Amino acid sequence: MNNPLARALRGAGINTVDVAARLGVDPKTVQRWMSGRMPYPRHRDALVRLTGWSQHDLWPDLPRPTQPEASGDEVRIVYPHRSTVPTDAWSRLFADAKAEIDILAYSALFLAEDITVSTLLRDKAVDGVRVRIALGMPDGVHVNDRGGEERIGDGMSARIRTALIGFHPIAEAGGELRLHDTVLYNSIYRADDELLINTHIYGRPASHAPVLHLRRWAADGMAATYLDSFERVWDSADKISR
């Protein structure tokens, strides 16, 4: 099954019987959900908690709010680790950008190797969206330290060099590439007011760490703090000639 709910449950390692037992429903009901039937709201909430996916990732046809919630909460969803973020969430994030796309990471190789995302970023740059990508300096001190922490040695530097090749067409299309030598506590992926923040955990690859999906509501909120961090690293990073 290619239904988002089926993919989410498979990714979380939860089978139909497990879901039925936890939610107190018949396994046939779960099978119908996985085939496309919409669950009741209380069951949707429970499935969000079980999978770590947002309601709109699980059921894309749900209506989306046009105004911020009264609470002004900037946290849309927390994914337990990056591999649970729906594959198409990255392309949908960048596809909605009208003015700015920012990427701050050590390598972001998973995006550079994603032909859908890399082509989208290139097309956005051609269309006049400001695309800025800051990757770790392959021979930098902190990249070397990160490689040691993850026990991959020079593997981190190799990932960055490979990612630079993948991102090169974006630079040719008008995007900006820079290299930084800073300690990253998070990787930042931004499209206008939407951000995916991949936290970093000592000794673990970023793909194993949680991801926060934020929407900026306020000039001094959580999202603004991450955006300020991006600007500080960007200003200190070295430009790469096209």
Q: Mind telling me the CATH class of the largest domain?
A: Alpha Beta
The number of E-state strands comes to: 8
Strand order of the largest sheet: 1-7-6-5-2-3-4-8
Pick out the low-confidence regions: 66-71
Number of domains: 2
Order of helices and strands: HHHHHEHEHHEHHEEEEHE
Shape: globular
Q: What oligomeric state do these chains adopt?
A: single chain
The CATH fourth-level homologous superfamily of the largest domain = Endonuclease Chain A
Question: Rg to the nearest angstrom?
Answer: 19 Å
Largest sheet: 8 strands, mixed
Helix content: 40-55%
The proportion of residues in beta strands is: 15-25%
**Which structural class do the helices and strands define?**
alpha+beta
Mean pLDDT: 88
CATH topology of the largest domain: Endonuclease, Chain A
What would you say about this model in short?
Helix content is 44%, strand content 17%. By secondary structure, it is an alpha+beta fold.
